[in-house]
Amino acid sequence: MFVVEGKKSVFEFINSKFVLHKLFSKNTSEFKMINVNQVSHSELEKISYLTNPDDHLAIFKIPNIKSINKNKLIVGLESINDPGNLGTIIRTCEWFGIKDIVCSSDSVDCYNPKVVQSAMGSLSRINITYLDLKNFLKSEPLNKFGTFINGQSVFENKIRTDKGIVVFGNEANGISNKLRSLIDIELTIPRFNNKSYPESLNLSNSLGIILSEFSRKSNEKKN
Amino acid sequence: MFVVEGKKSVFEFINSKFVLHKLFSKNTSEFKMINVNQVSHSELEKISYLTNPDDHLAIFKIPNIKSINKNKLIVGLESINDPGNLGTIIRTCEWFGIKDIVCSSDSVDCYNPKVVQSAMGSLSRINITYLDLKNFLKSEPLNKFGTFINGQSVFENKIRTDKGIVVFGNEANGISNKLRSLIDIELTIPRFNNKSYPESLNLSNSLGIILSEFSRKSNEKKN
Questions:
Q1: Which end of chain A is more exposed for a tag (fewer CB within 10 A), N or C?
Q2: Are B92 and A197 in contact (CB < 8 Å)?
Q3: CA B74/CA A18 separation, integer angstroms
Q4: What is the pLDDT of residue B5?
Q5: Residues in chain A, pLDDT under 70
Q6: Are domains A2-60 and A73-222 of this chain identical in fold?
Q7: Which residue intervals of chain B are DSSP H helices?
Q8: Cβ neighbours of residue B65 closer than 8 Å, sequence gap 6 or more
Q9: First CA to last CA across chain B, in angstroms?
Q10: How confident is the prediction for chain B on average, in pLDDT?
């Protein structure tokens, strides 16, 4: 099970394929045709993960593993640590039409309350699979992209961008050497400042820029 | 004055135009030719803003206000609240060659320890000015861009992108109506998912994508 807080997110999960287990609310009248448990503000303060609890808190069932859609671009995440980062990444992935995220098994849990909070409902519409990322990359015949400091510019690249796996590494260390050898195309977001710093971009910012550029390219090819 | 922690950031500030006031270190030998105060780990724990203090902590002087370079793209920030966000934004701005950030006077202080920490040295190389953003936009004859949900696609846009002011609004509310009327060109990062959600992208992710696209365009024009 996992917890969702906030009216908007709770509604988005109720309207998804996720199965509601229990719903607690200060204003039960806001949820018609659903069995809601009336709770007080002080009760919400006790069960909420938030410093300032919202009026609504729901418990949903963690779904069974679904199959991965390999006809669309897949995002691969290696050893992501920060729950806020993962939440933002899930939201940005949905914006750019990603259906599947695959995470190395040591990545932060996507049902962690901070991830749920910062993903803002997008978690209800994206399929996230935890697996042995190395084996997955090895066994998949898809194009594998990764972001590195010295790859080819993502802007100059003329490769097919609507299919394949784009891998992003851990916040501090990037993609590990054991995965690097499995990457077909090493990409870089060029620095446009003629300097050698900053050393790197923030992980979720890099992901946003790469996905935006992939979307732009594959959209231009369609038109 | 303000505090910088961590060897790498301290070095970057020492090598910048910032004036060092005091330096405290567990390993004074790492700083040659600088007057360093030897401190113990427990002393560092007392003066550090971090839960796990680094071995080096420096105090620098807040510099005098410098003039704004109007021949380059300027980033404008309205009512930014989150110090981690501002730090990431400063780093991403440096990546894309931004020299000047102008912040509305109610934005979070760029010398806040959390901003310094997440900006990772980039703060030492970017000029940040706090001002009345409305008056600044009113008085500047430059092109003013802003990001909105229903603007023109930043990808289709054929406007000049190497000069002007790109404005980003508060994390929760976006650009206020009082500033919106001063914006010449309303831009949007298109959703590539054929849906009407997520409602928005994270602020620093949007900024990264917009600056990356401006850089790509102005670079293509040059070549």
A1: C
A2: no
A3: 44
A4: 96
A5: 223
A6: no
A7: 7-14, 41-47, 83-95, 113-119, 133-139, 177-180, 203-222
A8: B129
A9: 44
A10: 94
DSSP state of A27: -
In chain B, what residues touch A215 (CB-CB under 8 Å)?
190, 192
| Cβ separation A92–B202 shorter than 8 A | yes
Residue of chain B nearest A217, judged by CA positions: B155
CATH superfamily, region A2-60 = Ribosomal protein L30/S12 (3.30.1330.30)
Q: Does position B220 have pLDDT exceeding 90, yes or no?
A: no
- Which value does ipTM take for this structure? 0.92
- Choose the mutation target among B92, B123, B192 for the interface with A, i.e. most A CBs under 10 Å: B192
Every domain of chain A and the residues it spans: 2-60, 73-222
What is the model's pLDDT at position B52? 92
Q: pLDDT value at position A223?
A: 67
pLDDT for the residue numbered B29: 85
Determine the residue of chain B that is closest to A194 in CA distance: B97
Residue A202 and residue B204: Cβ atoms within 8 Å? yes
Nearest by CB to residue B94, choosing from A125, A193, A209, is: A193
Chain B residue numbers with beta carbons less than 8 Å from the beta carbon of A207 are 205
All residues of chain A having their beta carbon less than 8 Å from the beta carbon of residue B120 are 198-199
Beta strands in A9-159 (DSSP E): 20-25, 37-38, 56-60, 73-77, 100-104, 127-131, 144-153
Question: In CATH, what number does B73-222 get?
Answer: 3.40.1280.10
- Please judge whether A92 and B205 are an interchain contact, meaning their C-beta atoms are less than 8 angstroms apart: yes
d(CA B110, CA B81): 11
Q: What is the pLDDT of residue A35?
A: 85
**Partner residue opposite A212 with nearest CB, options B94, B125, B209:** B209
Instruction: Return d(Cα A75, Cα A90) in angstroms, integer.
Output: 10
* Contact indicator for B182, B67 with CB cutoff of 8 Å: no
Beta carbons of B198 and A91 less than 8 Å apart? yes
Angle between helices B203-222 and B83-95 (to 10 degrees): 10
CB contacts, 8 Å: A201 with chain B:
91-92, 95, 208
Q: Which residue's entry shows tokens 């980033």?
A: B75
Q: pLDDT, tens digit, for every residue of B95-152?
A: 999 999 999 999 999 999 999 999 999 999 999 999 999 999 999 999 999 999 889 9
Cβ contact B202–A204 (<8 Å): yes
